[in-house]
Amino acid sequence: MYVPEQYRETDRNEIIRFIRANHFGILVCPSQKHLMATHIPFLLQSDDKTITLFSHISKANEQRNTIGTDTEFLAIFHGPHAYVSPAWYTQPNVPTWNYTAVHLYGTTKRIEGDALTELMRTTMNSHEAHIQGGLEFDKLPEKMLAADMRGIVGFSLTVTKIDAVKKISQNRDHQSKQNIIEELAKSDNHGANEISRLMEEEQQ
């Protein structure tokens, strides 16, 4: 991903927080004929040295043939974004788009057996915890669950490279930034509101 240095995010903790907040990502890898991409939710684990992603795909998905090889994968996570009008600048210039995104690169390993069951338990329970009257993984019918588990491929992705961007008008003068913050805050678009909030935080 092309990231001008003034927009590059390097705070590791902020990057981890961003991924956890925007964890429905896109898994990309090459095949012999084309690029393949799958939209899936990820879990993230980290320590002082390593960031690891966990997820699963359908066995019917062509990407299953590449998981567990030495092929490099890319996981894309997208945050809020918004159009920025030059009418809000103090000096004439062109329009732009403010946005946040993280690209994680790495290699994958398959997850099978009890480890796959535990991955699915953790994945489901982490989401069901936010649902009123949510259903726990272990409450699912065993026969149905066993059949569904046979139809998926679990994997981990160990991150080897990170590209993160937070483009929020850092190159504009103070008054232009304030104008952008105010105008985006008026929008009925959630992404515009979030960019306004991020810009306001950056000003503090």
Structure summarized in a few sentences:
This protein is 30% helix and 34% strand. It is α+β, with helices and mostly antiparallel strands.
Could you explain how this protein is built, in words?
This protein is of the alpha+beta class and 204 residues long. It contains 5 helices and 7 strands. Helix 4 packs antiparallel against helix 5. The radius of gyration is 20 Å and the shape is elongated. The two termini are 28 Å apart.
Spatial gap, N to C terminus: 28 Å
Write down the overall geometry: elongated
CATH architecture: Roll
Radius of gyration: 20 Å
- What CATH calls the topology is Pnp Oxidase, Chain A
> What structural category arises from helix and sheet content?
alpha+beta
Q: Helical content, roughly?
A: 25-40%
What is the CATH class designation? Mainly Beta
| Strand count | 7
Total tally of structural domains = 1
Continuous helix count:
5
* Main sheet strand line-up: 2-1-5-6-7-4-3
Low-confidence stretches: none
Strand content: 25-35%
Question: How would you name the CATH homologous superfamily?
Answer: Electron Transport, Fmn-binding Protein, Chain A
Order of helices and strands: HEEEEEEHHEHH
Largest sheet: 7 strands, antiparallel
Mean pLDDT: 95
